[in-house]
């Protein structure tokens, strides 16, 4: 769903040979693969062994018809776990997991940045990503289901509307200097309503709602909220806008 975001950032920052990229919360490694296909040497960190297993498969030599650069790797854990005495400083850090819709998500990103920025070269760009304004994100109307059902647990990770300065506040707290931003259209498309429910549940944004109620109720109300976005052929289409911020390591 976020491929347009990855591609836009890579193009703007001219990712290619000579790029040493550290991907925070790299997940299943799609953004890393796209950077590696441009010639970058990439390192990804994440805490999910299942997603990292897929990332390793994607970054294997000649995987998907793409030869990755020597030294590309993924590491389970935090940025500190990816550092070594002989590891060159990274000249690009990306945090593509969007913040701004989950209560407390910016604090988690701040902790990652505190570990990552000392590993980056002076002046290196750090890319942060977030959800766009709710009125520009059709998915935000569906995510409100999570807020309503998880109200008793609101402070433990339920959805909240994104704020205009979310990314700038994270950058400021991390001691980074903002140096440009942009918006990218990233529509969410699914083959059918069942696929949409599964896909949205996999984001983790509904975990608090499930804990506060039960899985069956969340599934039912999520399917009802998706109804306006089901097209005549049964597919689901939700236009969204995501925002990115480029900040610099001092």
Q: What do you see in this structure?
A:
This protein is α/β, with parallel strands linked by helices and 250 residues long. The strands form two sheets. Strands 3-2-1-4-5-9-6 form a seven-stranded mixed sheet, with helices on both faces. A two-stranded antiparallel ribbon has the order 7-8. Strand 1 (20-24), helix 2 and strand 2 form a beta-alpha-beta unit. The protein has helices at 3-12, 30-37, 49-59, 105-116, 139-149, 166-173, 193-201, 207-212, 215-226, and strands spanning 20-24, 41-46, 73-76, 92-99, 125-131, 177-185, 188-190, 236-238, 241-248. The chain contains nine helices and nine strands. The protein has one domain (3-137, 160-189, 238-248): Rossmann fold. The chain is globular, with a radius of gyration of 18 Å. The two termini are 32 Å apart. InterPro entries: Methyltransf_25, SAM-dependent_MTases_sf. This is Methyltransferase type 11. Keywords: Methyltransferase, Transferase. It holds the Pfam family Methyltransf_25.
**Count of DSSP E strands?**
9
Molecular shape: globular
Helix-strand string:
HEHEHEEHEHHEEHHHEE
CATH architectural label: 3-Layer(aba) Sandwich
What's the number of helices?
A: 9
CATH homology group: Vaccinia Virus protein VP39
Cα-atom radius of gyration: 18 Å
Instruction: Return the domain count.
Output: 1
Mean pLDDT: 89
- Flag low-confidence runs: none
Q: What's the story with the biggest beta sheet? A: 7 strands, mixed
- As laid out across the biggest beta sheet, the strand order is 3-2-1-4-5-9-6
Structural class: alpha/beta
* Strand portion: 15-25%
Q: What's the level 1 CATH class?
A: Alpha Beta
- Separation of the first and last Cα atoms: 32 Å
What is the name of the CATH topology? Rossmann fold
Percentage of residues in helical conformation:
25-40%
């Amino acid at each position: 769903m976020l491929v347009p975001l990855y591609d836009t950032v890579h193009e703007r920052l001219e990712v290619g040979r000579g790029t040493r990229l550290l991907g925070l919360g790299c997940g299943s490694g799609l953004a890393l693969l796209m950077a590696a296909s441009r010639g970058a040497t990439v390192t990804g960190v994440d805490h999910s062994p299942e997603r990292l297993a897929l990332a390793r498969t994607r970054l294997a030599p000649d995987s998907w018809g793409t030869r990755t650069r020597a030294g590309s790797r993924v590491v389970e854990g935090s940025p500190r776990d990816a550092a070594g005495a002989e590891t060159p400083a990274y000249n690009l850090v990306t945090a593509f997991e969007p913040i701004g819709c989950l209560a407390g998500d910016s604090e988690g990103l701040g902790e990652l940045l505190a570990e990552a920025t000392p590993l980056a070269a002076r002046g290196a760009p750090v890319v942060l990503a977030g959800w766009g304004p709710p009125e520009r994100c059709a998915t935000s109307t569906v995510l409100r289901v999570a807020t309503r059902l998880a109200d008793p647990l609101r402070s433990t990770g339920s959805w909240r509307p994104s704020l205009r300065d979310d990314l700038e506040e994270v950058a400021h707290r991390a001691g980074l200097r903002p140096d440009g931003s942009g918006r990218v259209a990233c529509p969410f498309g699914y083959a059918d309503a069942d696929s949409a429910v599964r896909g949205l549940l996999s984001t983790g944004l509904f975990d608090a709602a499930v804990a506060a109620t039960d899985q069956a109720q969340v599934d039912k109300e999520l399917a009802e909220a998706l109804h306006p976005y089901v097209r005549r052929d049964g597919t689901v289409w939700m236009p969204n806008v995501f925002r990115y911020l480029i900040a610099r390591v001092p």
